[in-house]
Amino acid sequence: MQTRVSIRHHDYPSRVRDEVVDKVQSLVKFHDRLTSINATLERLNEEHRVELVANVAHGPTLVADARGESFRGALDDAVQKMTTSVKRAHDKHRTERRRAGRAR
Description:
Elements (H helix, E strand, L loop, with lengths): L1 E7 L5 H12 L8 E11 L2 E10 L4 E8 L2 H30 L4
Parallel strand pairs: 1-2
Antiparallel strand pairs: 2-3, 3-4
């Protein structure tokens, strides 16, 4: 799985980029068909914004966006939202495949 981290309008230390990659890599265990995840980090005045965009092979593009006063809080919220979306997409994919295989 490819992971890209983009930083806009602010310089975060390199350990922040490593932390984002570690948290995002953990999403693979919920859906084995994730092909790439793009993370965008942004700081607007005193507010931090984290946007995660995940691409699923032969499936939907999933987006999670979170804002917070601290970077870690925004990152945790975005990862939690993306985890929910990835689990839902995985379950939907399994259900659709099961229904398509039934004899009518």
